[in-house]
């Protein structure tokens, strides 16, 4: 009896596949719903073990994905056919009847493909957030697809790898709030309208390399448990990565940002590579934590650049870069070396309120070609307005910059920028204690298994980082008192 059911299902599968090849849209949509129903039947079959259920269902899933991947000639004319009426110019000029026929055909095919996406999407969800749906254990291959219709895969749970690589999205796309337990590949894709990846979790490798975003793109508040690669991408509109956590290596190098790019408030547990990139608009990296190497070298910043209010546990490399607008490195802590050599600053550069625990250098090994240049004004290490100075923990610094075509860094008898000081042994010890407590909490968080425990440790970690910034702010602030002389108030700095 069970075998009879299996044979019958396979016969229905064959017939449904024939329907998918029909010229008639109602017939094709009928084939879609038959295939969807068959997957559900296989999964509910109590006579099969789970592995067999998934294997049988995967065959049908592969067919549905193949249909999504298949080309549709009229999709190449999407921009024109998506219009409400015939345009004065274009392929359909003076061909009104053909325009409306093709427009209807494109919309019918879009409805069929949207039905497949919707049925899959509904079964990738469960009533509880971040938990698997009925179809979460299947692999999905949408690579090379052209989506000439809006895509909604929000709050989806993928237990197996999913592949969207090499795809083109001609309408809006929403992937936000999703969980990717297996690898997620979105590489080599182009998004013509908005792209939403907000608040997603990637348990394995996430690949977004070589993609182009023609409109706004949002990746904020996401967590990457393994490596993530966004290299070689182009963002024509605004892009937001703020408030994200990267537990493995993350790569953004070789990318171009035409509008504002916001990475603020993010945490990088291992290395982060932003090198060889070009930023045409405002770029914000402020308020972030880099626990491994942070690499920003050989980049061009044409708008304002904000790196301030951050903590760099590993080395920070800003060398070989060009800054056209105002640049902020202030109110930050640099635990390891900071390399700022071979760079040109056309606008203001502010380092005040920071702590450089190890060496900082604007030139290397006495090589003039490696010196940085400040063309507009001398960099600010002491902020007279806000009474903020910079602290240094190393004697081995290099503040030599180009004098002929730029401004020097004026230094005191101790070899530090004017108005600045060395870290005291007491401050250094206190800083080390704070870093140790943060690291211990981080390690506990990584080992935590239960949601309540994770939430408690995350809250503690945020509090510790806030305390660290408050402490840095306190010791880099000049105490100002006033005395009255001949009816004039004269500030005194201690």
Q: Strands of the largest sheet, in order across it?
A: 4-8-12-16-20-24-28-32-36-40-43-44
Total number of helical segments?
7
Residue stretches low in confidence (pLDDT < 50, at least 5 long) are 482-494
Helical/strand content category? alpha/beta
Helix content: 25-40%
Fraction in beta strands:
15-25%
User: What does the largest sheet look like?
Assistant: 12 strands, parallel
Could you tell me the number of beta strands?
Answer: 46
Coarse shape: elongated
| End-to-end CA span | 91 Å
Average of pLDDT: 92
Kindly describe this structure.
The chain contains 7 helices and 46 strands. The strands form 5 sheets. A 12-stranded parallel sheet has the order 4-8-12-16-20-24-28-32-36-40-43-44, with no helix packed on it. The chain is 28% helix and 20% strand. It is of the alpha/beta class. The protein has a domain at 2-112.
Observed structural traits:
494 residues; 12-stranded parallel beta sheet; 11-stranded parallel beta sheet; 7 helices; elongated
Can you summarize this structure?
The chain is built from 7 helices and 46 strands. Strands 4-8-12-16-20-24-28-32-36-40-43-44 form a 12-stranded parallel β-sheet, with no helix packed on it. Strands 1-5-9-13-17-21-25-29-33-37-41 form an 11-stranded parallel β-sheet.
List the helices and strands and how they pair.
Blueprint: H1 2-20, H2 25-44, H3 50-69, H4 78-81, H5 96-123, E1 140-141, E2 146-147, E3 151-152, E4 157-158, E5 162-163, E6 168-169, E7 173-174, E8 179-180, E9 184-185, E10 190-191, E11 195-196, E12 201-202, E13 206-207, E14 212-213, E15 217-218, E16 223-224, E17 228-229, E18 234-235, E19 239-240, E20 245-246, E21 250-251, E22 256-257, E23 261-262, E24 267-268, E25 272-273, E26 278-279, E27 283-284, E28 289-290, E29 294-295, E30 300-301, E31 305-306, E32 311-312, E33 316-317, E34 322-323, E35 327-328, E36 333-334, E37 338-339, E38 344-345, E39 349-350, E40 355-356, E41 360-361, E42 373-374, E43 391-392, E44 421-422, H6 425-447, H7 451-475, E45 480-485, E46 488-493
Parallel strand pairs: 1-5, 2-6, 3-7, 4-8, 5-9, 6-10, 7-11, 8-12, 9-13, 10-14, 11-15, 12-16, 13-17, 14-18, 15-19, 16-20, 17-21, 18-22, 19-23, 20-24, 21-25, 22-26, 23-27, 24-28, 25-29, 26-30, 27-31, 28-32, 29-33, 30-34, 31-35, 32-36, 33-37, 34-38, 35-39, 36-40, 37-41, 38-42, 40-43, 43-44
Antiparallel strand pairs: 45-46
Helix pairs in contact: 1-2, 2-3, 2-5, 6-7
